[in-house]
Design goal:
Layout: H1 3-13, H2 16-24, E1 31-35, E2 38-41, E3 47-50, H3 65-74, H4 88-98, E4 107-111, H5 114-129, E5 133-137, H6 146-150, E6 167-170, H7 175-181, E7 186-192, H8 207-218, E8 221-225, E9 249-252, E10 264-268, H9 274-278, H10 291-304, H11 307-330, E11 335-341, E12 344-349, H12 354-364, E13 367-368, E14 370-372, E15 375-381, H13 389-420, H14 422-427
Parallel strand pairs: 3-13, 5-6, 5-7, 7-8, 8-9
Antiparallel strand pairs: 1-2, 2-3, 4-10, 9-10, 11-12, 12-15, 14-15
Helix pairs in contact: 1-2, 3-10, 4-10, 11-13, 12-13
Length: 431
């Protein structure tokens, strides 16, 4: 099937909206070969350096050979497995993950994806506490599934008529607002350690510690969503380690798959397991914790938790920072700031048109950069954690050129917005 036929088929049978979006931006890219940090167009005429990593899915690059070897080996004697039975693979992976967690975060429940893992955390919080309210951060994002959808912004659920009764939002980094919102019926506070969709907002010094203390005072559970920030992205295996806190539950996913086999998990304090002891079949995920996926995730944890690997993430983050600061000095009226922890980086731009403009300009320079959907003035910069110094130099050179082009493209986007409503239509944001 030729490229144009595939694009037409995608438009007809998968998503006409996505096809229209990419056509509008002149991005007729269809994924073909991929390896390391690169994704190639199927016709071989273009390749993109992945500076987004699909939110952390490709932390270890595309088709990491160690991950592929782990899956191939698993295929010699394993399949999905059966969620009803005890499993050596699930047990081994659960122990490996919980060994990386503090205190009594000793129980690991597997899911297929992050949204499902968040759903479990939320219903467990309500079931355990007997309370009904959940508090999340305005502009945060926790998935497109049922309960996960209710703790995100309204733009993701209103079109579907989803009821978010008893779900409250407060600004991230505002401990005072959280204190006012907490009451005796709040089961849990759920936060991304670093809210990616909000634009990589970094937790202010002491904020997460205050959240932990407020939850303790109110008898409220604290759920940390590490689906994007975890697995070494910030230079520590788990981003909440920077604050020195212990959550009641931790949700992980995306990168746990190694970009090869979908798997996610909810890690909970041991006392929260009571509800499952009373009825061990009250929550079941048919494909969650697939034994094939467990083998893959085992290798991911092994690689990502290595101290040499984590030190290298910090080193790479510093080199990227130095390169970004040079670019920042060249285009201060367009590129206005850097939000960073390790290789989890947000590029602050002039206004809400900056992110879309840079996405297109970066694409033209063979870089895959995605703007933060809940703050389009920020571009998400999430290169593979395996990025080399030579690749950093290459990316900085291309990003420099993209920034220069994006300044001019921004003006054109504003003109198009006035006539076509591009930004509003595709980001859910008002201009």
């Amino acid at each position: 099937m030729d490229k144009q036929s595939i694009i037409k088929s995608f438009e007809t049978h998968v998503s006409a909206g996505k096809a229209a979006f990419f056509k509008k931006y002149g991005m007729d890219f269809v994924m073909g070969q991929r390896d390391g940090a690169w994704i190639h167009d199927m016709d071989g005429n273009k390749r993109l350096f992945n500076c987004h990593s699909n939110g952390g899915v490709f932390n270890l690059g595309h088709r990491n050979q160690e991950i592929i070897d782990a899956l191939r080996s698993a295929l010699d004697d394993l399949d999905i497995g059966n969620h009803h039975f005890m499993s050596q693979e699930r047990s081994a992976l659960a122990q490996q993950i919980t060994d990386t967690m503090p205190d009594d975060l000793n129980v690991c429940i597997f899911s297929v994806g992050g949204g499902e893992a968040v759903d479990l955390a939320l219903k467990l919080a309500c079931g355990h506490t007997g309370r009904s309210k959940i508090i999340s951060a305005t502009g945060g994002f926790h998935g497109h599934t049922g309960l996960a959808l209710t703790v995100g912004d309204a733009q993701y659920r209103d079109a579907f008529g989803i009821d978010a009764t008893n779900k409250l939002q407060v600004p991230f980094n505002d401990a005072e607002a959280l204190a006012h919102a907490l009451d005796s019926d709040v089961a849990a506070v759920i936060l991304e350690t670093i809210p990616a969709t909000l634009g990589m907002v970094m937790p202010e010094d002491g904020y997460l510690e205050k959240v932990r203390a407020l939850c303790d005072t109110n008898g409220t559970l604290l759920i940390m969503d590490e689906i994007q920030s975890g697995l070494g992205r910030t230079g520590k295996l788990w981003a909440f380690e920077h604050a020195g806190i212990t959550p009641d539950m931790v949700v992980i996913g995306k990168g746990l798959s190694g970009g090869i086999y979908p798997i996610a998990a909810t890690i909970i304090r041991e006392p929260l397991d009571t509800i499952f002891q009373n009825d061990p079949f009250i929550h079941i995920s048919t494909y969650g914790g697939s034994e094939l996926g467990c083998r893959v995730a085992h290798k991911v944890i092994q690689i990502s938790g290595d101290t040499i690997f984590l030190d290298r993430v910090q080193e790479a983050g510093q080199k990227v920072r130095e390169g970004l600061e040079v670019i920042l000095e060249k285009y201060p009226k367009f590129f206005t700031g850097i939000r960073q922890s390790g290789l989890m980086i947000g590029l602050e731009l002039r206004d809400e048109y900056g992110g879309p403009a840079l996405t297109k300009a970066a694409y033209d320079q063979d870089l895959l950069l995605i703007y933060a959907n809940n703050d389009t003035s920020v571009s998400q910069f999430l290169p593979p954690l395996t990025i080399t110094d030579e690749e950093i130099d290459l990316v900085m050179d291309k990003l420099d050129k993209a920034m220069n082009a994006a300044r001019k493209l921004r003006t054109a986007l504003i003109a198009k917005e006035k006539s076509n409503g591009i930004l509003k239509r595709f980001s859910g944001k008002k201009a």
